[in-house]
Amino acid sequence: MPAYLYATLDVTDPVAYEQYRQKVPALIAAHGGRYLVRGGATEVLEGEAQPLRQVILEFPDMAKLKAFYHSPAYQTQVAVRQGASRGGVLLAIEGV
């Protein structure tokens, strides 16, 4: 069953975030993941959400998603992402 990583964040340091953006796609692919959404325009249709940067990744299953997230290579990038953004939320969602 596929699994999805959903992230929303406000990039506060575009230069530092660019370093993260350049390194992470290879780590995602190495764990069988792929981007479904990466940035792009957002529009709030209902509710009071802030339209921040949105990212949705798809992995073959939850085990691969967690292996990606907990991998030492990605964990070094977490600090870069957190230092270059705020308001971040990451969710692991099991698909159907």
Structure description:
This protein has 96 residues and is of the alpha+beta class. The chain has a single domain (3-41, 53-94), classed as Alpha-Beta Plaits, CATH 3.30.70.100. It has three helices and four strands. It has helices at 14-30, 62-70, 72-83, and strands spanning 3-11, 34-38, 53-59, 85-94. Strands 2-3-1-4 form a four-stranded antiparallel β-sheet. α1 (14-30) runs antiparallel to α3. The longest helix is centred in the first third of the chain and has 17 residues, at 14-30. It starts with a strand and ends with a strand. 11% of the residues are buried.
Sequence-ordered SSE layout with sheet pairings:
Elements: E1 3-11, H1 14-30, E2 34-38, E3 53-59, H2 62-70, H3 72-83, E4 85-94
Antiparallel strand pairs: 1-3, 1-4, 2-3
Any key phrases for this structure?
3 helices, 96 residues, alpha+beta, 4 strands, Alpha-Beta Plaits, globular, four-stranded antiparallel β-sheet
What is the string of helix and strand elements? EHEEHHE
- CATH class wording: Alpha Beta
Tell me the span between the first and last alpha carbons.
Answer: 6 Å
Side-by-side strand order of the widest sheet? 2-3-1-4
Query: Which CATH-level-2 architecture?
Result: 2-Layer Sandwich
Task: Assign an overall shape.
Answer: globular
Kindly identify the CATH topology.
Alpha-Beta Plaits
Q: How many extended strands?
A: 4
Number of helices: 3
Question: Segments where pLDDT lies below 50 for 5+ residues?
Answer: none
**What percent of residues are in strands?**
25-35%
Helix content: 25-40%
- Specify Rg, calculated over alpha carbons: 13 Å
Q: Sheet with the most strands?
A: 4 strands, antiparallel
What does the average pLDDT come to? 94
